[in-house]
What we know:
- By secondary structure, this protein is an alpha/beta fold.
- Helices cover 37% and strands 17% of the residues.
- The protein is built from twelve helices and 13 strands.
- The strands form three sheets. An eight-stranded parallel barrel has the order 3-4-7-8-9-10-12-13, surrounded by four helices. Strands 5-6-11 form a three-stranded antiparallel sheet, with no helix packed on it.
Amino acid sequence: MRLFPLVRPLLFSLEAERAHRLTIDLLTHMPGRPARHDPALGVTVAGLDFPSPVGLAAGVDKDAEAPDAFLALGFGFVEVGTLTPLPQAGNPRPRLFRLPEDRAVINRMGFNNGGQEAARARLAHRAGRPGIVGVNVGANKDAADRIADYAAGVRAMAPVASYLTINISSPNTPGLRTLQEAAALDELLAGAIEARGADGPPIFLKVAPDLATADVDAIARVALDRRIDALIVSNTTISRPPLRSAARDEAGGLSGAPLRDLALERLRDFRRATGGALPLVAAGGIASGADAYARIKAGASLVQLYTALIFHGPGLARRIEKDMMALTKTEGHQSIRTAIGSDR
Length: 344
Ligand SMILES: Cc1cc2nc3c(=O)[nH]c(=O)nc-3n(C[C@H](O)[C@H](O)[C@H](O)COP(=O)(O)O)c2cc1C
């Protein structure tokens, strides 16, 4: 029996951020081993063997409190963070809004997190346990030198990260997205790669969906030149497609169903701009096996989700995995690997 339809009204009766806090608290008491996955779902990216391409996106478990619980729920990997060098409170509440009629969320959290040191200790505590846990790093809002914050984050978190994500695409830290401009991005990535050292973890870069073709081309060029390991496409959007829910005019980043087509379009743009030379991770509005499979065919090696979990509950990763596998077989592929980029 599916329990979530019964629990959902209870969670939705709480203010959104309280419901989120309660969920994370419950999950910290739910240890467990990573779920088992059909071997046909395995994908290797940047030298890491992902048992399933369906991952938890950054922002759900910002402080690395419950990565093992999410792995036990069926996610093939978990990305914790965004973590900044120093703890920071984020924007005033309320700052997280459900848009139920749109299957969407608007957030302006502003990198609220307990800082890298605390998360590093938690992750060090789970060292040796199975499961891929990536660490997403960002800059403090009032950092004198934001680029230096990324290098510091890479240095601090590399020892406990399966991979690192450089997040320059949050719309909720004023000016952060300007780091996507070629010259700044080049300097930032050079610093991050140097900070990682010779045998540190792979580095992924997470971009916004709100990019013109010229921006996509410039980012792809720098990412290829600097030889980063993967691109995550994408973060939330500052654009506003038509929305119906009461909270539609809130400021912040929009995620969920209304982001789906935009994120898929941007994924295709990056596929074209990189010529397949750089692994892509798709995020934005993925809520079903069909959504996930469409991204895989468009060139993503991995997918991530956040907002759909709020509406569909903790069984979603498993359902997506099962439906995606069925679609893969229907289209004549023996494994997900051969389906990647197959709709060119
Ligand atoms: C409440 C909330 C907080 C988020 N926080 C972060 C974050 O800290 N770092 C980050 O890289 N992305 C963050 N994201 C973006 C998600 O990781 C994801 O890229 C985006 O929401 C699109 O996926 P979705 O439509 O499945 O939610 C956040 C999203 C939401 C809804």
